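Renewal narrative, Specific Aim 1. Our central claim is that a sequence can be written position by position from structural information alone. The example that follows is taken directly from our test logs and has not been curated for this report. It begins with the structure tokens describing the chain, in the order in which they were read.
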């Protein structure tokens, strides 16, 4: 008997470096695919629980590279130069005002400067500073507006102090926005398999990124999380921690969910 539909399993190689969804899509991974479901281990909820969220689930990301140019001089005579470090300090504070004063309080956005390279000696006014940071947003329009304000801040504020600024954006991941009906299918399947008390509906999106977002930009789908926390087995450490490990019993729940998602996904089509 001919099956009513085909199943394609997607495994993302090197998703956080040079691989992941984008090259897979370019290679034809989504050709003739009508619906896609993805899952991710979730160390915050117990094994046997399923985490879901309607709408925005993960943020977009952009790497921010900022170059501040001044003029070097002896530290005893700062008026003879232009202190790039002072300019950089004001620029960092100015960037935070974008979140507090240009972003609606009901919207989400994060600007973090996590790296500063500057100076050669304690008694020399630095003529150059490089800042590296990240921008995280949940909405494409917010992302566009914040990038515009970052560029304006970096290129105009240093002029007031006698220096110059340059902004280089390195585009990262797109935001992951779940489709409503596929999320409902995941929810109904979890309730049927494990009971209503085993569904955890997330109140807030994750400001981390997830490249599954590119799959559901192309075809309808939903991304959900699979509880893998078990204190009895010492599986209770956060992800990206040297002691992180999953409760392997959770894998059975994940397989069951994906089988049901395939079976009941035809309701969507």
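The sequence written for that structure reads:
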């Amino acid at each position: 008997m001919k099956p009513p539909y085909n199943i394609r399993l997607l495994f993302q190689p090197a998703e956080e470096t040079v691989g992941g969804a984008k090259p897979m899509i370019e290679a034809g991974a989504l050709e003739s695919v009508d619906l896609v479901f993805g899952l991710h281990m979730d160390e915050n909820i117990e094994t046997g629980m399923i985490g879901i969220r309607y709408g925005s689930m993960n943020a977009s990301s952009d790497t921010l590279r900022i170059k501040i140019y001044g003029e070097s001089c002896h530290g005893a005579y700062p008026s003879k130069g232009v202190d790039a470090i002072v300019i950089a300090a004001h620029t960092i504070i100015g960037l935070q005002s974008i979140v507090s004063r240009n972003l609606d309080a009901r919207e989400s956005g994060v600007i973090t400067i996590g790296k500063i390279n500057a100076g050669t000696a304690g008694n020399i006014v630095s003529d150059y500073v490089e800042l590296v940071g990240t921008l995280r947003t949940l909405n494409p329009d917010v992302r566009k507006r914040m990038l515009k304000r970052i560029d304006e801040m970096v290129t105009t504020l240093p002029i007031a102090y006698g220096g110059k600024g340059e902004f280089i954006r390195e585009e990262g991941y797109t935001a992951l926005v779940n489709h409503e009906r596929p999320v409902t299918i995941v929810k109904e399947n979890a309730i049927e398999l494990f009971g209503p008390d085993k569904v955890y509906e997330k109140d807030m999106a994750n400001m981390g990124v997830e490249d599954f977002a590119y799959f559901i930009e192309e075809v309808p789908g939903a991304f959900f999380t699979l509880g893998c926390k078990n204190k009895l087995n010492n599986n209770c450490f956060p992800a990206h921690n040297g002691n992180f490990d999953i409760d392997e019993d959770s894998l059975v729940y994940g397989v069951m969910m994906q089988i049901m998602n395939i079976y009941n996904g035809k309701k969507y089509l």
